[in-house]
Specification:
Its EC number is 2.7.1.5. The structure is a single chain. This protein has 447 residues and is α/β, with parallel strands linked by helices. The protein is built from 15 helices and 21 strands. Strands 17-18-16-15-19-20-21 form a seven-stranded mixed beta sheet, sandwiched between helices. The protein has a six-stranded mixed beta sheet with strand order 3-2-1-6-14-13, with helices on both faces.
Length: 447
């Protein structure tokens, strides 16, 4: 069985070809490309047409497959007019247009959508958008699927990130949409992961179909967490870090709302109960500011640096926009009465220690609020390559951290496609058989 996963992150995209046989899934990267936002007339946009061209290139390189699945980051969308044409490039969630929203969710709204407050949630973006000509809202994976097939629709897991989704009923929250004054007509029918969109009509040189996977990349990543028991927490670590537990039902009480936890839909009726934590974005922006440098050498130097010299709150609003991140770290330290990092190694140590502490808080809160006992933390995504971050997380949480798979989102993507085509068995067992994993123990040090 051969499939292609299109996995779009906030800083890069990749097209992966997967082959499934003998109880294993093997991934091969056939195309990787940068995902660079573009600022035009003071507004930060995604270059979605450029992304679509890269996707087409990757699909052609992947060759004949049974199905294609697309996942991406959450909250952002494209708007189509009545003729199905895109109304402008989608706006980037880091654009400043929603900065004025600083409210915390009221109890009534949280009771419906179960979503943590983030100023760039789809709900707030739509309140800032011009919707008079819009006929259809499509989240980024649904937009690309539409261009590939000509068919419109919405996928469950990404719809659940909008703030306009009823987390109990697992469909659009129509009364909330009406109360906010948003046009109900723009929200298309929601489909479950594993449903087939339709045949690809774009010219690829072979026939295939698009299957709706868990199109929020975190939902795909969690589907590929190689857990063997339910008592696990996960950290999906990339540009963002999503930290939480997998539940059978949402947690919607006042304590959960006050802790700013979110309830997002997962596959098979599950709830991803989690908190968004700023992830490797802070390190990525430092590297961009420093220019060419040896990341592996920096990480080794950071591992040798004196611990606990300074910490930052990764979720401080000052770290959200792009820009001179080293200067912002120094300013934060000054503002909080701490010394600024003396060099790059100390800055990297500060970032990773601060992330590990943020993970510890989120894991502890998830366990307390959900009542779920946690025995192990699974760290998946690009952060699984970062041995120092993994060890610091084990030390901070006091729990073993199982690192891997790195390409968790792509794995979850193809496994949902495969199951839709008849694959039987536990998806996570396929991951455990197929992927290299490394366990970090508290106090174990780096070896």
């Amino acid at each position: 069985m051969r499939f292609t996963a299109v996995d779009l992150g906030a800083s890069s995209g990749r097209v992966m070809r997967a082959e499934i046989s003998s109880g294993r899934v093997d991934l091969v990267e056939v195309h990787r490309f940068a995902n660079r936002p573009v600022s035009v007339a003071g507004t930060l946009h995604w270059d979605v047409l450029g992304l679509y061209a890269e996707v087409l290139d990757g699909l052609r390189r992947a060759g004949p497959v049974e199905s294609v699945g697309i996942d991406s980051w959450a909250v952002d969308y494209g708007l189509l007019d009545g003729d199905g044409r895109l109304i402008g490039n989608p706006v980037h969630y880091r654009d400043a247009r929603t900065a004025r929203y600083t409210e915390r969710l009221d109890a009534d709204r949280y009771e419906v959508n179960g979503l943590q407050f983030l100023p760039f949630n789809t709900l707030y973006q739509l309140l800032e958008d011009r919707l008079d000509q819009a006929e259809t809202l499509l989240m980024i994976p649904d937009l690309l699927a539409y261009w590939l097939t000509g068919l419109r629709g919405a996928e469950l897991t990404n719809a659940s990130t909008t703030g306009l989704f009823d987390v109990r009923e697992r469909t659009w929250a129509r009364p909330l949409i009406t109360r906010l004054g948003l046009p109900a007509r723009i929200f298309p029918e929601i489909s479950e992961p594993g449903s087939v969109v339709g045949p690809v009509t774009a010219e690829l040189g072979f026939d295939t179909v698009v299957t709706r996977v868990a199109s929020h990349d975190t939902a795909s990543a969690v589907a590929a967490v190689p857990a063997s028991t339910p008592n696990f927490a996960y950290i999906s670590c990339g540009t963002w870090s999503l930290v939480g537990v997998e539940l059978d039902s949402p947690v919607l009480g006042d304590d959960s709302r006050a802790a700013n936890f979110t309830n997002e839909a997962g596959i098979d009726g599950t709830i991803r109960y989690l908190r968004n934590v700023m992830g490797l974005w802070i390190l990525q922006e430092c590297l961009r500011a420093w220019g060419e440098c040896d990341l592996e050498g920096l990480l080794q130097a950071a591992a040798r640096a004196e611990p606990g010299q300074m910490t930052i709150d990764p979720d401080d609003p000052s770290f959200l926009p792009p820009g001179d991140m080293p200067a912002r770290i120094a300013a934060y330290c000054s503002r909080t009465g701490q010394p600024a990092p003396a060099d790059r190694a100390q800055a990297v140590r500060c970032i990773l220690e601060s992330l590990a502490l943020a993970y510890q808080r989120a894991v502890s809160d998830a366990a307390r609020l959900s009542g779920r006992e946690i025995d192990v933390v699974h760290l998946v995504g690009g952060g699984a390559r970062n041995a120092l971050l993994c060890q610091l997380t084990a030390d901070a949480t006091g729990l073993p951290v199982v690192a891997g798979p790195v390409e968790a989102a792509a794995l979850g993507n193809v496994l949902v496609q495969a199951r839709a085509r008849g694959l039987a068995g536990d998806l996570r067992e396929f991951v455990r058989r197929s992927q290299p994993l490394r366990t970090y123990h508290p106090g174990g040090g780096l070896v």
